[in-house]
Amino acid sequence: MKSKADLILHPVRMQIVQTLAGGQQFTVHDIALRLPDVPQATLYRHLNKLVNGGVIETVAQNQVRGAIEKVYALASDGMISAQEFAESSKEEKMGVFIQFVSGVINNFGEYLNQDTVDFVKDGVTFRQAEMHMNDEEFQEFAQGLAKVFSKVMNNEPREDRKKRKITTIIIPKVKKERIENDLPN
Question: For 120-149, how does the pLDDT look when each residue is reduced to its tens digit (9 = 90+)?
């Protein structure tokens, strides 16, 4: 699992994987249109790493002006499965999480390093909220989020659309047993 996570969680490769999420199938040209900040040579290099690592696969080939154009999609067993993650060690899980959070920090740093930033206009937010839900309420909440995401997940790039990264991290509160000495008299 660790080697697969190392492969996927590289910033450019993560963008490629996210572009192909949701059953999308794209050519290199299509992916390049969705990732205009990634130089073409870099895109090809990282696509090859993902193909060689079994994360993405060629699902079709088209003849275009005498050349073969490949169509890529996520491989059915290319991503880290829930079972692989569950069976990984605590250290491996923490390593994957640290890589993920580092990518989020990197994205925020890139945003801040622009010549002009406008949190309000750009819709930049980050917050943490605690909510009390039983398992059934949480499942309903998670399904609602998935439904909201699915409405815009596969929007095509256009002049009037700005690409935005939305990150969710859900961590249940750890119940700590109170030690008798900690209780007030």
Answer: 999 999 989 999 999 999 999 999 999 999
SS (H, E, C) the chain: CHHHHHHHCCHHHHHHHHHHHHHCCEEHHHHHHHCCCCCHHHHHHHHHHHHHCCCEEEEEEEEECCEEEEEEEECCCCCCCHHHHHHCCHHHHHHHHHHHHHHHHHHHHHHHCCCCCCHHHHCCCCCCCCCCCCHHHHHHHHHHHHHHHHHHCCCCCCCCCCCCCCCCCCCCCCCCCCCHHHCCC
Predicted local confidence at residue 181, as pLDDT: 58
Closest CA to 4 of 91, 92, 90: 92
Question: Which CATH number does 2-115 carry?
Answer: 1.10.10.10
By the 8 A CB rule, do 33 and 47 touch?
no
Tell me the domain boundaries of the chain. 2-115
Query: Which of 3-12, 75-84, 91-100, 120-129 tops mean pLDDT?
Result: 120-129
- State mean pLDDT over 96-121: 88
